[in-house]
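Appendix B, example 12.
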Amino acid sequence: MKKNYITEFKRSRWANAEFSREYRDNADIFVVERSRLLEIMKSFYRYFIGDSKKNNVLDLGCGDGILTHNLLEIDNTISATLVDASDDMLNKANERLHGFENINFIRASFQEILEKDILQQKFDFIVSSLAIHHLTMNEKRDFFKKIYSHLHPGGYFMNIDVMLAPTDALEQWYMQMWREWIDERKTSLGIEGNIFDDITRRYKEFDDNKPDTLDDQLSALRDIGFKEADCFYKYGVFAVYGGRK
């Protein structure tokens, strides 16, 4: 029996507008060194892609459009396609990118992208942030193949996401670093109480989160044919990695 992925998405937390709003409003607390992650993405784009103009960019699991907005700050000639399964997130992305030209939005889950020819074009840069960890490892491999097929030769893929630690001991330390980051951010913002204290537990215990190790994901990229597949930055469970077609 064929899955109805939109129905499945509507059962997930991300279909809840309040949950989406909580994430948008507090991402700088949840996500370790979020501003640095965005700067790394922009540095990568400038160094490897930005010499040419009118690049085609695909933003997978775009959320409120923050990745594309950051890229437009350094190259306003790009054409961008933003994909998300959440109507609420797409509406916020549309608001954020109002006034920019050559911006397209597609409402679709990653599983739908795996099953259907939704994208129908090739891209110079494909980027995703904190979204691919919702796929199983088998789905990740298939998704990386789909990404590879939609890159121009010489095009690049980058993923910013949470990773599964390779050992229990490392995971405990990574979780401690993450909690310390959240506590520091709360203190600097004057936030009191135990709000956000369960964030580190969510990334593995919630059913729609399926993190895998960085090594497994890099190996999958290399097996598919990505060149220069590497980890570009890492802080505990947060990592930036990718490769070139």
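The domain at 5-244 is CATH 3.40.50.150 (Rossmann fold). Strands lie at 56-60, 79-84, 103-107, 123-129, 151-162, 227-235, 238-244.
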